[in-house]
Design a protein that fits this description.
- Helices cover 49% and strands 16% of the residues.
- The longest helix has 20 residues.
- The chain has a domain of 188 residues.
- Strands 1-9-8-2-5-3-4 form a 7-stranded mixed β-sheet, with helices on both faces. A two-stranded antiparallel sheet has the order 6-7.
- Helix 2 crosses helix 4 and helix 3 packs across helix 4.
- By secondary structure, the chain is α/β, with parallel strands linked by helices.
């Protein structure tokens, strides 16, 4: 079954992006209809984060989220098999010169990359321009594990680090001149998490951004990828390097990170990865929302 799904995705990559986008949105609408558990998770997340929005509006936000989720699933076929020339036309990267200047000056770079639906496309856009590193989660299905691993190493000299590897491997990669594409905004129930606000909700958040930046002497550079309408492609936005980070206060650093992510989410709320149970870990005595 896995091989059949992969074969289907391979065939889809020949379609123009506008055709893939249409099919992806249709798939997402179907998932919104049948995937009751995930729909519930998305609606709970939106209720917690946007209490000022009424239920009808939140449901429309959730439906649009699923349509974009469907797009991101099918359009991975382009990231895995489309030619470099084609992807270069579809992946617009704004601000790469900021990161290049840091690397040329010998500064380690830590890329703050929140879980927006276009993050895989953004990773490809960065990999086409820099020999970078990223954290890799081993997949339970060996067929998809090989495919994801190969897809992420298509461009340049890319280093994939397993989540099981020590922090030292990430620090070494940054010190060797590889920007680390780092995703710190999921609930991993880790001992390295602390509770800090996210959309006004106390949220278990890993402190890795502050710790890694300190250990590597790295500059934090935010990076957000936006899925553009129809066949327009993706816009990868490399932001201004953060000043005065990290500090001696890990909690303050983590609060700053969550505040920045929240502000980015508000610019395109339908594109954040709401199907994740971001608030599953609660402070002692607090009810679980899902």
């Amino acid at each position: 079954m896995s091989r059949l799904l992969v074969a289907g995705l391979w065939l889809l990559h020949f379609l123009p992006l506008s055709g893939l986008a249409f099919l992806g949105r249709a798939l997402g609408l179907a998932l919104f209809t049948v995937a009751g558990r995930r729909r519930h998770i998305v609606l709970v997340n939106l209720r917690l984060c946007f209490p000022e929005v009424d239920e009808t509006q939140r449901r429309e936000m959730a439906k649009e989220h699923f349509k974009l989720l469907g797009r991101s699933m099918l359009e991975r076929s382009l990231l895995w098999w489309a030619s470099t020339e084609r992807l270069s036309r579809l992946l617009q990267v704004d601000g790469e010169e900021r990161m290049r200047k840091l690397l040329e000056a010998g500064r380690p770079v830590l890329m703050l990359t929140p879980h927006f639906l276009g993050l895989d496309a953004g990773g490809a856009g960065i990999a086409m321009r820099f020999d970078s590193a990223s954290i890799y989660s081993v997949q339970s299905d060996p067929v998809f594990d090989r495919l994801l691993h190969r897809g992420r190493q298509r461009f340049g000299d890319q280093l994939l680090l397993s989540r099981q590897e020590s922090v030292r491997a990430s620090v070494r990669a940054m010190k060797a001149g590889r920007p680390l594409y780092y995703l710190p905004d999921m609930d991993f129930r880790s001992k390295d998490s602390i509770f800090v606000p996210f959309f006004g909700v106390q949220t278990a958040t890993i402190t890795g951004l502050s710790r890694l930046a300190r250990l590597a002497g790295a500059t934090v550079v935010p990076c957000v990828t936006r899925i553009l309408p129809g066949g327009q492609g993706y816009a990868v936005e490399v932001g201004e390097p953060w000043a005065d980070f990290p500090t001696d206060d890990v909690e303050a650093d983590t609060r700053r990170m969550n505040a920045w992510i929240e502000a980015a989410v508000r610019t395109m709320p339908e594109q954040y990865y709401w199907v994740h149970r971001r608030f599953k870990t609660r402070p002692p005595g607090e009810a679980r929302p899902y």
